[in-house]
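Now for our target.
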Amino acid sequence: MSIRTIEGKTISAVIACYNDSQAILEMHQRLTSTFSKMGINYEIIFINDGGSDNSESVLKEICAKDKKTTAILHSRNFSSQNAFTSGMIQSKGDFVVLLDGDLQDPPEIISDFVKEWEKGYDVVYGIRNKRQGSRFLNFFYKSFYRLFQKLSYIHIPLDAGDFSLMDKKIVQILNSLPEKDRYLRGLRAWVGFKQTGVKYVRPERSYGVSTNNIFSNIRWAKKGIFSFSFIPLEFVSYLSYLVIFLSVIALIVYLLFYFFSSEVLEGFTTVIVLILFLGGIQLLSISLISEYVAKILEETKNRPKFIIKEIINDNKNKK
C-alpha cells in the first residue's frame, strides 16, 4: 500500500447543520484547533439546511472573522444527505471530512482518519464502537446495521455512519452520481476503492434536542434497505411461491375428502382466516413494491437535490 503525506495538501471539513446554533461555534473552534495541531491547510464548510434557529446569524459572524470558513445557506431543509452533497460540491480540498453539526462526531478523530489516508486508504469511516445514551437505541442501531449488511448486495461496514474522510477522487465520483434520494454511507461503500474504519466512542448530543425519533429512524432504515437491496422483492416472489404451494396442498386434501370420505368439509371460520391471510400477504407485497415505485418516482422527477439561498465566503469561486 502506498504511503502519502499531507504536506501541501488541503483538507475540507463539511458540516451539515440543522438547528445546531449552540454547537456551531464550538465545532468551529475544535476544528481549527485540530487542524492547527496537525499542521495542515484547511477549509471549513458549514451547511445550514433550513433550520429554524439562529444558525444563520451565528455562521455569518464566524465567516466575518474567519475567511477560511464558508457557510452555505439552503432555502429550506433538504435532508442531511443533500446538505453533505452541497458541501462536497463546494469543497476544493484534497480530501473531505463529513461531520454532523451536533458534535456527536468528534473533530479530534480526524487526525486518526488522516493517518489512515497517509497509509493509502481512499476512504476512512468512523466505526461507532460504543454509543453513549439510550440502550434501546443502541440495540436498535446495532441490529439495523447487521440486518442491513446481510440484506445489501454490497458490503456495508458495521456501525459506520456518515462521519468519514474521503479522498478527492471519491468525492468527485459521489458528486457525479445522478441519484436524488441519497444514502451516502451506502454510496460510499458502493464506489469501492481502499477503505478502512477507525473506532471511536460516539458521545451524546451536547446541545439542543435531537430530531431523531423511532419513526425517523425507521424511515432511515427503509431508505438504506430499499436503496441497496432487492431482497424485499425476492421475498414477495418467495411468498407467492409458498402460497401457491399451500394452495395446491389444500386442493389435494379437499379432493381426497371429496372422493374418499363421506364427511363434508365445512368451516366458516377457516374461510375467513384464509381470506385475511391472503389479503395480508397481498397488502404486504404491494407495500414492498410501492417502496421501490416511490424511489423510482422520486428519481424521475429530476428536481435539484437542494437549493442554495446564499453562500458566504465562496472560496471555491473566488476570483
Notes: Residues 231-301 form one domain. The chain is about 50% helix and 20% strand.
